[in-house]
Design goal:
NAD(P)H_dehydrogenase_qn, binds flavin-adenine dinucleotide, Flavodoxin_fold, oxidoreductase, Flavoprotein-like_sf, six-stranded parallel beta sheet, Rossmann fold, globular, 258 residues
Amino acid sequence: MKTLIVHAHPEPRSLNSALKDLAVETLTRAGHEVRVSDLYAMHWKPVVDAADYGPHASSPLRVAADSGRAFEAGALTEDVRAEQEKLLWADTVIFQFPLWWYAMPAILKGWVDRVFTYRFAYGVGEHSDTKYGERYGEGTLAGKRALLSVTVGGPEPHYAARGINGPIDDLLFPIHHGILFYPGIEPVSPFVLYGTDRLTEEEFPDVAKAWRERLLMLESTEPIPFRRQNFGDYAIPSLQLREGLEPAGRSGFGLHVR
Ligand code: FAD
């Protein structure tokens, strides 16, 4: 595998950083190529602004259109071009982050906002009677896979089907489906560690073992079977799931999993 690890934690001695280091070591030892984007260490700029698009920035700023023109002209900033190049190089992307306010840390969302530009990650492909652009299973990053490695403060029952925080699959759906599957990346089931604020150093070896095992299985892990957009499950252009395709008792985000 050619694996890009996108890491988002400010503390090099944190649990998240230990999991990132373990992933580098485990995958490298197993003969895989690994590159790391350590966003805090890189002082990643997380905000989109006119400076991102140089002479292609319009006034008023049009983020989608301007980013697309700058992308097509090869004129995005060097930091963004480097991340796009890493994504094109990788066949597998691991995102390592703590769950903060039900979501990824802002620096990682800012990486997505700036790197997933128009014409690169969205606004790709033809629009016709049978295609609504290339997205949700197609697109620039199709054929690549991703794994979210997420540490969570709350205990597992709080994230179960009836748990007060909502099911973890629902909380991660915006990332799995809206950010990754949209430009074509197929996510596999996430590696989620619960109750991490109470994790003791004595418990860490078990966590490390589970993470190593998961990493070594990654190459052969099937992705989450999200429905692809342009392959008959959705009417075009309404993009509603066709009648009768919903499995009994399933609603909400679960409708979009085959
Ligand atoms: P650390 O604090 O670095 O480590 C946790 C424990 O792991 C340590 O106490 C230590 O005993 C052990 N450990 C760490 N590294 C090692 C090592 N190398 N070897 C052995 N043991 C080690 N939680 C939720 O459930 N939902 C939320 O919405 C949510 N929002 C949050 C918002 C913010 C702004 C913050 C700060 C926290 C939030 N949390 C939430 C909690 C958060 O998810 C956890 O604090 C986080 O996942 C823990 O990861 P960490 O890397 O920061 O852990």
